[in-house]
Amino acid sequence: MNGVFYISAAIGLVSALLAITGTNPMHALVNLVVVFLAISSVLWTIGAPFAAALQILIYAGAIAVLFVFAVMMLNLGEETIRREREWLSGSVWILPIAIAIVLAVQFVAAFTRQAGMANLVGPKAVGISMFATYVIAVELASLLLVAGLIGAFHFAEVLRRKETEDD
Amino acid sequence: MIFAGLLFTIGAIGVIVRRDLVFMLISVELMLSAAGLAIAVGGSKWSQPDGQVFLIMIFVAAATGVAVGISLLLAVYQDRKNVDADELSLMREREPIE
After folding, report:
1. How does pLDDT run across A91-143, given as a tens digit for each residue?
2. Which of A9, A90, B14, B40 is the most exposed place for a label (fewest CB within 10 A)?
3. Residue percentage of chain A with pLDDT more than 70
């Protein structure tokens, strides 16, 4: 299981470097998703399967999709389409595909063998601890979410008002 | 732990070096998830569920941060038609370009 840990750690580091050095936001986002998947498999190997599942759901699912929508709304225009066409026929695919295949293979190996989770802490223990010991933290988290919602709504409202003024 | 530290360092470098707001947000996300990983590893070292509970709290904080950050990003883009962080640091009305 140590091997799985080291391979996913290496993949995570490589993809993180790629994510912050790239020039194309979309490529950076895909690399970011790979980083999150690698972190998730590291969490799995250290015996936190619940956290690993949540990592995929929240980061690779929700947050990455949010980023993708934002980048699409930035509307990069004609030039991007032309560049995209150039990229489609290139060797840029080889490294990401190789990384993804390695990650997929070790995911399958880890999930089928079910072995080697060092200090397993299951979802049940997490849930009990969260809603018994840390109820106040959960309440504070919900408060934070409401604050975030209101903040995002406020900025969207500013945008809308600006647009109607322009018309 | 070393992995988490390196990941955090990469994220921090990203925040400092890049000027594009999209990349800065991505780097902040990297740092947050590295911190979460460190917390989860600590929890797993002593076989306690606390680490994972706080990892979930970090998820919540990250989700909120991204939501607000992206809406700010879109607002900036609407205003300036680019997402350059250096230009934002002027902190005053830009003179209209004639």
Report:
1. 566 776 777 777 777 767 766 665 555 566 777 777 777 787 778 888 888 88
2. A90
3. 73
User: Any CB–CB contact under 8 A between B42 and chain A?
Assistant: no
Q: How many H helices and E strands in chain B? A: 4, 0
Which burial class, exposed, middle or buried, applies to A66 when counting CB atoms under 10 A from its CB (0-12, 13-18, 19+)?
Answer: middle
Q: Which fold has domain A2-122?
A: Four Helix Bundle (Hemerythrin (Met), subunit A) (1.20.120)
Q: What is the DSSP string of B25-41?
A: HHHHHHHHHHHHHHHHH
- Do residue A126 and residue B3 have CB atoms under 8 angstroms apart? no
β-strand partners of B20:
B84
Q: In terms of CA atoms, which chain A residue is nearest residue B31?
A: A16
Q: Tell me the residue ranges of DSSP E strands in A67-122.
A: none
Task: Show residues of chain B in contact with A152, CB under 8 Å.
Answer: 67-68, 70-71
Note if the pTM is more than 0.90.
no
* Interchain contact, A137 vs B53, CB within 8 Å: yes
Tell which CATH classification among 3.60.110.10, 1.20.1270.90, 1.10.287.3510, 3.40.50.150 matches the domain B2-86. Answer: 1.10.287.3510
pLDDT in tens, A59-73: 888 888 888 887 777
